[in-house]
From TrEMBL:
Residues 1-18 form the signal peptide. InterPro entries: PfkB_dom, Ribo/fructo_kinase, Ribokinase-like. Transmembrane segments: none annotated. One of its GO terms (molecular function) is kinase activity. Residues 3-284 form the Carbohydrate kinase PfkB domain. Keywords: Kinase, Signal, Transferase. It comes from Malassezia globosa (strain ATCC MYA-4612 / CBS 7966). One of its GO terms (biological process) is phosphate-containing compound metabolic process. This is Carbohydrate kinase PfkB domain-containing protein. SUPFAM superfamilies: Ribokinase-like. Coiled coil: none annotated.
């Protein structure tokens, strides 16, 4: 058994750091294992707002990897990331300290849901923060129905999650195109980017351009050898967000521009599965650009 750095929030922060954008990680570890903070620093992540709990241990994930195809099975053990009465409970104070720096807020479901909702709602009240949500592990049907989706600008899920969300919110099967089925629901009408990853079948995105939702499909990037799929989705998310951060308000959002952002995320994700580990498998921007050039 090996101990390695990871966790969805930490992985995405590491991706953004390696992609060359400014990123600050807000999270919590226990005093029993603070070395993941050092791993984030090595990947150019600002960790000044990380909280070290004196009495709740660092959260852990027990991951089994198939030697045949690199697929994983994960059991999560909550720790300091689910502790209460920490800076994670105070979005107002955190945003007031960082408001001038924050353009994008990236959230997942490995912290208390009440905390996630508080950050979503506060970011929405500011009006100038793009909130990205990857609801994994998946919320319960009741949580999905109660979630403030109007505060989300970018939603990233895999195909199975999209189908589960549609079923929970509509009571119907999503059919052969869960991404479009999900986008058709009133709760998601205002979400600008709805991105659905489909493994070896690539990914698709429905992006609001003006009043019209434009659909873009991209093929999966070729992988040389699948070693470990852990962290591949986080790598895709991070590079997609890095691409969004490169956009400016005046940029025209064409299908070609959307596809280029998705393709870069796909290539990075394909590279991640070629290396063992989660955070250790994330490629740098230079490595991703070299692979894209090689692919032509």
């Amino acid at each position: 058994m090996w101990a390695r750095p990871g966790g969805k929030g930490a992985n995405v922060a590491a991706v953004l750091g390696l992609a060359g954008v400014q990123v600050k990680m807000l999270g919590a570890v226990g005093s029993d294992a603070t070395w993941p903070i050092d791993c984030l620093k090595e990947r150019h992540v600002d960790t000044t707002d990380m909280y070290v709990s004196p009495d709740v241990p660092t959260g852990r994930a027990f991951i089994q990897i198939s030697s045949e195809d690199g697929e994983n099975s994960i059991v999560l053990l909550k720790g300091a990331n689910f502790a209460t009465n920490t800076p994670l409970d105070e979005p107002n104070a955190w945003f007031s300290r960082n408001e001038q720096q924050i353009t994008h807020l990236v959230l997942q479901n490995e912290i208390p849901l009440a905390c996630t909702i508080a950050f979503v709602e506060h970011a929405a009240s500011l009006g100038n923060v793009c909130t990205v949500f990857n609801p994994s592990p998946m919320l319960t049907p009741d949580e999905l129905r109660a979630f403030p989706w109007s505060g989300i600008r970018v939603l990233i899920v895999n195909q199975g999650e999209a189908a589960d969300m549609h079923r929970a919110l509509s009571g119907r099967d999503a059919g052969s195109e869960p991404a479009k089925a999900l986008a058709s629901l009133p709760a998601f009408a205002s979400i600008q980017w709805i991105v659905v990853t489909r493994g070896s079948q690539g990914s698709c995105a429905g992006v609001l351009v003006g009043s019209e939702r434009v659909w873009v499909d991209t093929q999966a990037a070729k992988t040389r050898t699948v070693v470990n799929t852990t962290g591949a989705g986080d790598t895709y998310t991070g590079y997609l967000v890095a691409g969004l951060m490169s956009l400016h308000e005046r940029d025209s959002l064409s299908s070609e521009r959307i596809k280029a952002i998705m393709h870069r995320a796909s290539v990075a994700s394909a590279m991640a599965v070629e290396v063992d580990g989660a955070m250790e498998s994330i490629p740098s921007a230079k490595e991703v650009d070299a692979r894209i050039a090689l692919l032509g």
